[in-house]
Write a structure and sequence with these properties.
single chain; alpha/beta; Rossmann fold; 5 strands; about 50% helix
């Protein structure tokens, strides 16, 4: 069983004000939508390293997200099905082994096949900057490269998600 541990990331991160801001945003999201934002951190393909994904997942949990962590070596179809079954708002695809240009478009397609094209897909990890536009063109709502502060990504994702949900309500 894969778990994230609460409190570890926030106790070590120096920008407490940003963390508190994101926590307030997740609480406001819950008031408006009846539940906290839910993200699934996914490791698809042959990438056998998940330490970074676990750190990111722990950071998001510390900031008020409900976090699911998928197992290693999932296919895009398995990831999409887990995302649908768990009714997540966001799938965060963690990439280290250069599968992002194949796996992300397949994940987006699999979500659409399941009638859940509304689930936001983001990519994070070791992704060359020259691939960002390709990923955005194929469904990535955001991309976070190495060194992106987790509170920045958590806040940015929530801002994008809130904008999408507001547009759906219009």
């Amino acid at each position: 069983m894969i778990r994230s541990i609460s409190g570890v990331y926030s106790s070590e991160y120096s920008d407490a004000a940003t963390i508190e801001e994101v926590r307030k945003m997740t609480a406001e999201f819950e008031k408006k939508h009846g539940r906290r934002p839910r993200i699934m951190v996914a490791k698809m393909g042959q990438d056998g390293h998940d330490r970074g994904a676990k750190v990111v997942a722990t950071g998001y949990a510390d900031m008020g997200y409900v976090v699911d962590v998928g197992p290693l070596f999932q296919t895009p179809a398995e990831t999409a099905q887990d995302a649908v079954d768990n009714d997540v708002h966001i799938v965060g695809m963690s990439s280290l082994a250069a599968g992002h240009k194949t796996l992300l478009p397949q994940l987006v397609e699999e979500l659409q096949k399941r009638g859940r094209g509304d689930i936001m897909v983001i990519a994070g990890g070791v992704i060359p900057a020259q691939d960002y536009q390709f990923l955005k063109d194929h469904g990535a709502a955001a991309i976070y490269g190495p060194g992106t502060p987790i509170p920045f990504a958590a806040k940015d994702m929530l801002e994008i998600l809130n904008k999408r949900l507001d547009e759906e309500e219009e």
